[in-house]
Design brief:
- This protein has two domains: 86 residues, Beta Barrel (Elongation Factor Tu (Ef-tu), domain 3); 145 residues, Threonyl-tRNA Synthetase, Chain A, domain 2 (2-Layer Sandwich), CATH 3.30.980.
- A six-stranded antiparallel β-barrel has the order 2-3-7-6-5-8. The chain has a four-stranded antiparallel sheet with strand order 9-10-15-14, with helices on one face.
- The chain is α+β, with helices and mostly antiparallel strands.
- The C terminus is likely disordered.
- The longest helix is centred in the middle third of the chain and has 25 residues.
- It has three helices and 15 strands.
- The chain is elongated and about 55 Å long.
- It starts with a strand and ends in a 6-residue tail after the last strand.
- The relative contact order is 0.16.
Amino acid sequence: MSATERLYYHDSRLLEFDARVVDLSKRDDGAIAVILDRTAFYPTGGGQPNDTGTLGEARVVDCIDAEDDGVLHVIQGPTPEIGDSIHGRVDWLRRLDHIQQHTGQHILSAAFVSLFDAPTQSFRVLEHECEIDVAIDNPTDEKIEQAVDLANQIIWDARPIEIQQVTSEAAAALPLRKESAREGDLRLIQIADFDLTPCGGTHAQSTGEVGVIAVRSWERAQRTGANSIHGRSASARGLS
């Protein structure tokens, strides 16, 4: 069985596609998981939740990254047969929210690095906001406001965002915001003249599509070997 071709790597706005069913399995809870030869559905991973949508007449309620085995599409509804051709459709509003939140996280994280050399240690895209853990010395309201102001300036500049595929050797010579432990080719997200980082998530084509970033709250947390802040930021949809 070959791995699933991940169409979202090349086009975050691809919502409909046709594919072939290559495998079926039953989950512990009895749900059926479908593996396709190609998919536009993003599986949970890298801090970003999964897409939902439909496969044929069935509802896709979860997507799981099985790595080399492909993407598992957990469905509710009619089960296809192995070898069937099937039409997939991704829920746009959920995908759009993840595009805005994840791209907004890249911009805000790059702003903290640019201003305070403060890297993001982890992040989580939630239903209406994004939580970011930033390693920063002596966090204050003023520092956070400065990072938000810079991030929103980058958004309002409507800078183009491009995807690059490079070898790990080529990536080692590039000014990446964070290193990747992944071997082989890397997928890089580049925000013009501002940020370059490895990432497998879905992203906007321009920073202007994010709308606006606002930090709703933050708190100081003690992390092993570093002080960090735990903050919640929201994109345009998160502010509604």
